[in-house]
Amino acid sequence: MDPRRLIPRTDAALADPRLAPAVTRLGRDRVKAAVVDAQSRARAGDLSPEDVVPAAAASLPHRATSLRPVLNATGVVLHTNLGRAVLSEAAVEALRAAAGATDVELDLETGRRARRGRATLAALAAAVPDAGAVHVVNNGAAALVLAATALAAGREIIVSRGELVEIGDGFRLPDLLESTGARLREVGTTNRTTLADYRAAIGPDTGFVLKVHPSNFVVTGFTADVDVEALASLDVPVVVDIGSGLLAPDALLPAEPDATTALRKGAALVTASGDKLLGGPQAGLLLGTEPIVERLRRHPLARALRVDKLTLAALEATLTGPSTPTHLALHADPAELRSRSEALAAALRADGIPAEAGPSDGVVGGGGAPGVVLPSAAVALPAAWAGALRAGDPPVVGRVERGALLLDLRCIPPSSDDALLAAVRAVAEDGCTS
Ligand SMILES: *Cc1c(COP(=O)(O)O)cnc(C)c1O
């Protein structure tokens, strides 16, 4: 019999349970195209008929998105290139629940329109009782744009020359602020700015005084800057961009500013990111006095910066749920990290893989806590393995340092140790490491 007669028909292949998940994930048309392609390879004799369905399944992507989950072995807790904060399970569950139709803007009791995101805003207000009112926009940059536009367009923002910072990837805060039509009134010098400098710049055109946390560098030596408390004694609103999103002080990061402290010292408005130290989704947090937040909320631009139901859901779950992966990674016990690194290295050596356990320096990253070293532990492999590990499944991203590839365990939850081992073993077996 002609073996080509055994090639499954398209309808039969599409009904095969082995292709059902792909149909759900990618749609029937895309799977059909893969089946047709496999059928033609079988007709050409390049594939046996019983392999048509498995070959079609194997040719299709495992996910509906091309974004790939990665094991972050860099030791950088908030790695901007890896998407900053890892969401908690609670936040992921909330995303799922919010994905369909939700009551994001409807009061189910009365059947009337309700304030969008009210539960998330209530959770944020509860987390920072010193804020008279709160609002959420798309990211930290959007929070600053809204504040500058609503409070200082056509007027002046007074800012220290020591705080005109670039955040990363060419994102320069002064350029962003000036794009709103506000004028920057620079005061002081790179290393020293005094209260008298600010006071001398205040005039009828002043919109507000801005204090920016220079989050990704430190200036040491002959320096002076002015605390929020002193700035608040001036007769103009003080806006504080804390950047990192700590809502209250964290003993681990004593130099990192937080929203509660800034508000207690008299800030009229605090802006921060949701996906840095808070450990939530990308968002911009605005916390301040009731009249100022209300002005921002009612400004026409607010509509262009509003967050979607997914962000609202994930942010609420982050604020009300258990410790975030960011918090756990920051506070991971170095002794525990060391014993995990020793166990992993020993397991790899037993397979003939040249792995060594050793110390590693983790950092906060994401423009937070510059100069703070988080003592960590790593599995060291030959540096030449870095590319193959990045190309693996899941990709493993480590840090090449002093001729070795360090796989830092601080941002790898213990539940992923087996996946890390499997990824390293797969690279060793492939032999494509040098
Ligand atoms: C990160 C950061 C921003 C920008 O926040 P995004 O959420 O990335 O838009 C602004 N200011 C400071 C001080 C920051 O650290």
TrEMBL record:
The alphabetical list of record keywords is:
Cytoplasm, Protein biosynthesis, Pyridoxal phosphate, Selenium, Transferase
Residues annotated as carrying N6-(pyridoxal phosphate)lysine in the record are K276
Gene3D superfamilies (UniProt xref): 3.90.1150.180, Type I PLP-dependent aspartate aminotransferase-like (Major domain)
Stored Pfam families:
Se-cys_synth_N (PF12390), SelA (PF03841)
Q: What biological processes does GO assign it?
A: conversion of seryl-tRNAsec to selenocys-tRNAsec; selenocysteine incorporation
The EC number of this protein is 2.9.1.1
CC per GO annotation: cytoplasm
Cell compartments where the protein resides: Cytoplasm
* Presence of keyword rRNA-binding: no
Example GO molecular function term? L-seryl-tRNA(Sec) selenium transferase activity
Question: What EC class is this?
Answer: transferase
**Could you tell me what reaction this enzyme catalyses?**
L-seryl-tRNA(Sec) + selenophosphate + H(+) = L-selenocysteinyl-tRNA(Sec) + phosphate
NCBIfam families in alphabetical order = selA
Q: What does this protein do?
A: Converts seryl-tRNA(Sec) to selenocysteinyl-tRNA(Sec) required for selenoprotein biosynthesis.
* Xref: PANTHER family: L-SERYL-TRNA(SEC) SELENIUM TRANSFERASE (PTHR32328:SF0)
Q: Which family is this protein grouped under?
A: Belongs to the SelA family.
The protein's name is L-seryl-tRNA(Sec) selenium transferase
